[in-house]
Amino acid sequence: MLKTNNQQGVALIIALLVVSLATVLAVSLVNHLHYDIRRTENILRLDQAQLYNVNAVEFGILLIKADLKVNNKYDSLGDIRLFNDQTAIFPVDGGSVSTHLTDLQSCFNLNNLSKTNTELSRYRTQYITLLGNLGVDSNLYTTLTDSLIDWLDKDNINEPQGAEFDYYIGLEKPYRTANNLMVSPSELRLVKGYTDAVMKLIKSEVCVLPAVNTGININTASSIMLESIAGLEGHGDRIIKDRDAKPDNDDDDAPFEKAGDFKKYASGTLNVKNFSDTGLQVYSEYFLLESRTQLGAGDIKLFSMIYRDNSNAKIKLIRQTSGAL
Ligand SMILES: [Ca+2]
Ligand SMILES: [Ca+2]
Ligand SMILES: [Ca+2]
User: Fold this and answer.
1) C-alpha 5 to ligand 3 mean position (Å)
2) Does residue 322 contact residue 299 with C-beta atoms inside 8 Å?
């Protein structure tokens, strides 16, 4: 009798174990199912967001094209603002899509310091003035300029205060010089002398375009950038007041619309002697279009560098990244 009771007890424990195991399995299966549903949902959301982003870029490109073909033949900060106002935020089902345009010819193109640039010496002088305007220590001017020229030039021969292969290969974590045009301004951090402190001072005014000898748009350049141009020292704020189309000044209160208008203005209104407008222009051909889609938990950003040929409004998508450009 005792033996039978024991057997019944063991059978009951086994039955309970089986039920518990089955419950654990069932819960685990349900969890997996929930997880799979969530994952599929996220993948679908992400695909949807990516499609919205592609459309946002297409829409942005259409507006950039229309600005030249329909709106005007020059580019001012007013044009950029108008673009950004028009494309601020579009509500979509479950989220929003937005685009933001930046002019890439208001900044100093680091690739202009390439030795393939016939205007190198002028850009070298402008770069040094710009470093000074941005508050960089004057003891660093030559090192920062020479090492950048060495980074871009094909040879392995040092500029007087530059750096080539032998310098970089001796570092704790060695690497080679690019000896080529830069692809991204973040590459500058690899070049001798470009410390965090220097980068912080200059990053807002420098950029990297996939070409050399690209001009500066005097309708969009900052006061600091304008004052780095030979002859315009001390005139930055005045130029900004005169081009902004706000009635706060009597002189030429509108963006400069044609090549030559600025030269007349600098020589006449600003009274700059022997002013040269080489490398200055009233339009832009390189733009950065940032598109963003927020959908549920998904937040997708796309940075597109866009080239718009000023002669025929043809558009070329130069580079696209999901991080910073
Ligand atoms: Ca325009
Ligand atoms: Ca080199
Ligand atoms: Ca060199």
Assistant:
1) 94
2) no
Q: Tell me which ligand sits closest to the C-alpha of residue 256.
A: 1
> Which residues surround the ion ligand 1 when the cut-off is CB under 5 Å?
67, 72, 75, 79
CA of 165 to the centre of ligand 2 (A): 8
Q: What is the pTM of this model?
A: 0.86
Alpha helices in the chain (DSSP H): 2-66, 77-86, 120-133, 141-152, 165-168, 196-202, 223-226, 236-243, 261-267
Q: How far is the CA of 324 from the centre of ligand 3 (A)?
A: 29
Q: What are phi and psi of 99, to 5 degrees?
A: -130, 155
Which pLDDT tens digit goes with each residue over 42-64? 888 888 888 998 999 999 999 99
CATH of the structural domain 114-204, one choice from 3.40.50.11810, 1.10.40.60, 1.10.620.20, 1.10.10.10: 1.10.40.60
Q: Provide the residue ranges of all domains of the chain, joining segments of one domain with +.
A: 2-104+285-321, 114-204
- CA 63 – CA 117 distance, rounded (Å): 32
**How long is the chain?**
325
Task: Give the span between the Cα atoms of 60 and 239, in whole angstroms.
Answer: 29
**Ligand 2 centroid from CA 187, angstroms:** 14
CA-wise closest residue to 288 among 312, 320, 311, 314 = 320
Q: Are 54 and 65 in contact (CB under 8 A)?
A: no
Q: What is the pLDDT of residues 258-286, one digit of tens each?
A: 889 999 999 999 999 999 999 999 999 99
User: Nearest ligand, CA of residue 146?
Assistant: 3
State the Cα–Cα distance between residues 191 and 303, nearest whole angstrom. Answer: 24
CATH of 2-104+285-321, picked from 3.30.1300.30, 3.20.20.140, 3.40.367.20, 3.40.930.10, is: 3.30.1300.30
- d(CA 84, ligand 1 centre) in Å: 13
Nearest to 220 by CA among 287, 282, 288: 282
- Rounded to the nearest angstrom, the distance between the alpha carbon of 110 and the centre of ligand 2 is 15
